[in-house]
Amino acid sequence: MTFLDERIWTLFKRHWRQTLTYWSAFFSFGLCIAFLGPTVLDLRCQTQSTLQEITWVFFSQQFFLLVGSSLGGLFKKTLPSSLLALFCCTLIISLVFAGIPLCNHVLLLSVAMAIAGLAMGVIDTIANLQLVKLYQKDSAIFLQALHFFIGLGALVSPLVADPFLAEDSCVLGANWTANSSSSSPSDLQHLRSSLAGHGVAIGNISQYPLHTDGVVVTRVSYAFWIMALINLPVPAAVLALMYHERLLSCSDNSQRLIDRDSLSSTSPSPTGDSGQGHGSLFGCCNPAKLRGHPASFFILHAVGGAILFITDGIVGSYAGFVYTYAVSPPLLMGHKTAGCLDSTFWASITVGRLAFIYLSYRYTSPRLLAFSLV
């Protein structure tokens, strides 16, 4: 049995431009979601803020990611609006990366992270919805590949940032020479790794005296500029897809490809859906549409949503917890060895998603979910 049957391969060849574009957009998502943990101490120095203040940027990013995911549904009805939103959001991520070094106050940094979170949320919703529209019942394998690119971006981001992170105090105060021993590199490494993910163990780090006034000597700006350049091909790919679909004013004035494709979507689907969406933002909650469904229908969706939120929260929380556990008794790992665990975790996520591209093709979703949860 081949890795993919001829029907799946034919579908991919028919939609390869759109598919690769949506996959690359999720690379932007991953690139943006993983950089904050390892760079937060250098960003604290850049903004000359306290640790309690800088951790608000985590909340800012995550809250507006939730908002962006909700707003992304507004662009689902037509391909032109979806691609335009996708282009703007992927470009915004590059602009945010380029602008972060200019944020010299924690409030400005929080606003930048809010904008990035909003863009990430829109990318998340649009890419998932458009792939499901393209492949419908065969979308599972392509969605697995889509989420593989989150892991790939999340793996690249810390690797780019690592060479530019401060080894010692990155704010030199007037009395730095006398107190330099109070902030050793190992202390800073412990703080940085403890803050990885969503800011775990913040209540126990106030014992480390870190300067907020003085000369800032961090070089983390270079990391953000490199990530901005790495991300630039993504909006370029979206722009190329818009040109191919003849959605730009400079494109050929012949009939748009989407107009021809939309002819088939107007006919009723096997499930009776006309393909025109729900009609309004909250159309899916229409009591008339929900009437007649058994109780198991609602239980299934509630449990599925709970699993999604819990497992997604575990990803961020575990990334911060694993280092603290490793350096504490009984393991007492060295700081460098323990620091590799976070990178190993993201690498494992990437490999797991790559493996599930094949597994989702061979096995049913309930069986894969049960195995993964166990």
From TrEMBL:
<feature type="transmembrane region" description="Helical">
    <location>
        <begin position="343"/>
        <end position="361"/>
    </location>
</feature>
<keyword id="KW-1133">Transmembrane helix</keyword>
<keyword id="KW-0812">Transmembrane</keyword>
<feature type="transmembrane region" description="Helical">
    <location>
        <begin position="106"/>
        <end position="129"/>
    </location>
</feature>
<feature type="transmembrane region" description="Helical">
    <location>
        <begin position="297"/>
        <end position="323"/>
    </location>
</feature>
<feature type="transmembrane region" description="Helical">
    <location>
        <begin position="20"/>
        <end position="41"/>
    </location>
</feature>
<comment type="similarity">
    <text>Belongs to the major facilitator superfamily.</text>
</comment>
<keyword id="KW-0472">Membrane</keyword>
<dbReference type="GO" id="GO:0016020">
    <property type="term" value="C:membrane"/>
</dbReference>
<protein>
    <submittedName>
        <fullName>Uncharacterized protein</fullName>
    </submittedName>
</protein>
<dbReference type="InterPro" id="IPR036259">
    <property type="entry name" value="MFS_trans_sf"/>
</dbReference>
<feature type="transmembrane region" description="Helical">
    <location>
        <begin position="82"/>
        <end position="100"/>
    </location>
</feature>
<feature type="transmembrane region" description="Helical">
    <location>
        <begin position="222"/>
        <end position="243"/>
    </location>
</feature>
<feature type="transmembrane region" description="Helical">
    <location>
        <begin position="53"/>
        <end position="75"/>
    </location>
</feature>
<feature type="transmembrane region" description="Helical">
    <location>
        <begin position="141"/>
        <end position="161"/>
    </location>
</feature>
